Structures are given as structure tokens and as C-alpha cells.
Amino acid sequence: MSTSSAISVQGLTKDFRVGLRGIKLRAVDNLSLEIPRGQVFGLLGPNGCGKSTTLKIVLGLIPATSGAISILGFPSATTEARQRTGFLPEAPYFHKFLTGRELVQYCARLSGVPSAQVHDAVEASLELAAMTEAASRPIGTYSKGMLQRIGLAQAIVHDPELVILDEPTAGVDPVGSAAIGRMINAMRAKGKTIVLCSHLLGQVEQVCDRVAIMDRGRLVLEGRVDEVLAQRDRHVITVAYLTPQARQAAEAALAAHGATVTSITHPRRSLEDLFRELVTGSRDA
Amino acid sequence: MNARLNRTSWIARITFLEAIRQRFFAFLLVLSAAMVVSSVSLRFMDFGHSELKFVADFAFGGMFLFGSVLALVMTAQLFFAEIENRTALTLLAKPLSRTEFLLGKFLGTWAVLGVFVFSLAFLQGIILWSRTQELIVMAAETGRVAPDFSVSGLASFAVLQWLRLGVVAAMVLMVSAVARTFLFTVIVGAMAIVAGQLQWLAQEALLKPSDASVVTKSLLWVSSRVIPNLQQFNIGDTLVLDPTAISGAAVWSVILSGLFYLVAFLALASLAFRRREI
Lengths: 285, 278
Description:
The structure holds two protein chains of two kinds. Chain A has one domain: Rossmann fold (3-Layer(aba) Sandwich). In chain A, 35% of the residues lie in helices and 24% in strands. Chain A has helices spanning 51-58, 79-83, 100-110, 115-128, 144-156, 174-189, 201-207, 225-229, 244-256, 271-278, and strands at 5-18, 23-36, 40-44, 66-71, 74-75, 85-88, 162-166, 193-197, 210-215, 218-224. In chain A, strand 1 (5-18) and strand 2 (23-36) form a beta hairpin. Chain B contains eleven helices and no strands. Chain B has helices at 2-20, 23-41, 51-84, 87-92, 98-142, 151-178, 182-197, 199-207, 214-226, 236-241, 248-274. In chain B, helix 3 (51-84) runs antiparallel to helix 5, helix 5 (98-142) runs antiparallel to helix 6 and helix 6 (151-178) packs parallel to helix 11. The longest helix of chain B has 45 residues, at 98-142. The two termini of chain B are 25 Å apart. Chain A binds chain B through residues 56, 59-63, 79-80, 82-83, 85, 87, 89, 91-95, 97-98, 106-107, 109-112, 151, 154, and chain B through 3, 6-7, 10-11, 14, 17-18, 21, 85-87, 89-97, 275, 277-278.
């Protein structure tokens, strides 16, 4: 196990027993993974690939069948490891009768924030999650995006070194999703390690330094985002005002050097960028 | 140690707030209070016992019945709400041990049961006091001995009932820690309460000389040790109307027995919950 890793997973296997006959279902199969400190790490994969099970084992919520896991050098499932970890579960649900501020205060107390620092810690995390204005409202009145943001605030209130976010943008509109992306970048700027589990590949590509892809409980790919996505034998040149004559001349010049033009298209904005541009300034408050 | 207590008390505080807001709690409290108040109106059904004894027994019956239902359903509901709504995921991912979580859930529930028991005991105290004043006047007119009741006996009874409900809540929490569903927990918990009410039968059978087989005797012995005797807490009428008939040592023996089972059930619940998949 490497102490320089935020999370070190070695040979992790998890079997579930299903039905009365106890048929074995392997959810995670001999997974080994090192997540470096100070980076945003994306854990990807289709539904049922073992992502959430892996996260739950890392957090000590379910026991592993075999394998060893450490968080920041501490064995996972210990309070020392969880003291340094913040977690936002998928589709979070909180006590509806509490206000946002009360929830974050409650979580600060449970996370061992000293009494004298609770107020400042709560206000700082609410501010980072852009929830200060709505913090006095009962959670039962929050929209989905606000629930995710208050969930993020409770996850970071004790200033953890490692933040695990399970589908933080599920069901959130593109504006809210972009806001969460900005929060992730703000946490990265503070030197935090962030593990992001998401189906929004566009967002993962934008915010993550490294990604791992799981399928059927196994790790199928792991590496830096720019390395795993780069097509080393292809290049993109963006040209303004390309006339037919200029195009012919460019193709001829490239052909003279043995290069082949495989496609010429107009660059496109992403639909998400267009949406955010059109509804800019709006907030799901 | 301080941090552990702090975390446990916060879980208990939120559990208490959640429970006290439930309509089910309010409904049972109002129903039980109505039963306590109506005991005076129904005193003509005293079956030859003294009037105050009937009033006290009727109210104790309400406290016992609805208190048991409240302890059973509320403990199971508050536990499974955390699991099924997945709030337990958020909480147990924090530096909070599972024992602290369970203990906090128990203490929060027990505090609500305390509100239930002591509110009803207070109401019953008012009812008994006002009826006693009327009976004192009537006794003076007819030259009979005036009846009386013990306020400290009523307080002792309330403490014993609170402890009994605590034992029930701890027992239900132990079942919840291993059970998968709310319904299963309620059914098994209800059976455990009935077994606890009938446990004295096992004790009596064990004490009587009989030609029962070794297996039967072993089963009776295990039953009388594993299942708490919930009937031993029902000494309200003696404590309230004839406090000299029961010794302080006997009351302390009941309290210590209750505390033993309460701690034992919580320890077993904690052990079972430690490996549970959330």
C-alpha cells in the first residue's frame, strides 16, 4: 500500500449471497487501484459495474470479501480514515424537518469539528456550496439541485482531505451541474483529493485529472484523462474563413507531405455550453 | 471518550426531534391521556376494588398497553427510516462508530418514551389527587377512613415503566439490527413482548417440583434467563396505594434487573449491527 495515495485498493473482491440458496454474485472482482493525492479522480462504468459497491467498501459501509484498502495511509473503515473523508451519497436524503444550516451543523458535530469552530466551518461550507441564502429553509422545501449542494456542504464541513462524490449531478440541470463542477475545481485548488463517480462523461472529462473505467466488477482502464483520450495519430487544425480554393490548396500541400485529410467539419459547441450560455445567471434556488 | 459522548448525544438529539414530531406519537399520547382521564368516569366498573385502585389500574393499563405499542413501533420505525431513506449512509460514512449510532438511536427513542410516561404519570397524579380530595370530604361526612395515594410511589412507578419501555426498545433494536424489514421486526418484537409478559410462568414452572424431562427443564431455565420478566415492573398499584407493602430493596432489584437486560440487549444489538451491510 502506498502512503502517497489518497486511496489504495489492493485485490478487492466482493461477493454477495443472493436468494435462499445463497448463490454467489461477484460485484467487484480483484480490483487494484491507486488514487493519487490532490487530484480529481473519475470512477466510471455502467450501472451495476461495481462502482458504488467499491465506494461503500472504501467507506466501511459494507465489508469486503477479500482485499485490502487504505485511505490516506489508514486502514479504511476506521474512524481515523473517515475523519479525513467527506462523502456525498447518490440521490442524498436528509431529515426534512432540519434546515440546511442545522443539517450541516449536525454533520459538523458528528465529524468532530471543535465547538468553537463549528459556526465558521458551517458558514464556509455553505458558502462554497452556494447555499448560504437558502440555509435557513427546511430541507423539505429544497429542489434536487439544492439537495445535492447541501449534501456537498455536509460532506466538506470538517475540511476533509478526501471527498467522495457519488453521482453529484444526477437529476441536476446543466446550470446546477456546472455549479457543482466549479465547486469541485475550488476544492481541487485547495489541494483536496476528489473521487467522482458519474455518468456525465462530459463533466468527468472536464473536471477529472485521472479516470478509471470499471465493467462487471473489473477495472478495464485507468490513466490520465488526456492520455487515455488522445488519438496520437490524428490532429485538429481550426481555420477561420476557409474558402474552397484555400481548402484545395491546403489538402494538396498536406498530401505533398504524405498526410491525408480524413474530415473537414465545422466545429460545434456542446449543447450543454449552449444551454448554459442561454440561461446564464439563472440559479435553481 | 468526550467525542464519543458528543456524537452519541447528537444522534440522540436528532432522533428525539424526529420522533416527537411524529403523528403516531401524538396519537398514542392523546389516546393514553384520554384513557387516564376517563378512568374517573368509568370507576363504577370497579369490580368491588377500592375506587382509587380501579382508577390507578385503569390508567396503568393504558400506559402499559400504548407504551408497549409506542416502544415497539417507534423503535423499529426510527431505525428502519435511517436504513431505507439511506440517511444512515451519510451518517455512518462519518467518523461515527456503529455502536454510537445505535446508542444514539436508543437514547433518542428512550427520551421520547420518557416524555410519554412522565406526561401520563403527571396527568394521573392530578386525577388521583383531585379524586382523593373528593373522597376525603365524603369520608369525613360518613366517618370512614379517608383514602390516600403516594406521590413518590407514583414517581417510582413512572421510573419503572420508563425502564420497562427501555428494555422493550433495546430488545426491538436488537431485532432491528439483524432483521431486514420493518414488518418482521414488529412481529418478532411483539412476540418478544408477549413472551416477556409470560416469562413468570417459566420461572414458576421451574420452581415447582415436577417430573418434567431434562430438555423441558433446560428450555424453561433458558427462557427464564434470556427473556426479561416484564411483569415484574407492574407493581404500580402497590407503589401508589400501599407503598409500605413493598420494600425499597424489591424495587431496586427490579431496577437492576431491568438495567441488566437493557445493557445486554444493546450490547447484542451493537455486535449484530457491526457487520450489517448498509
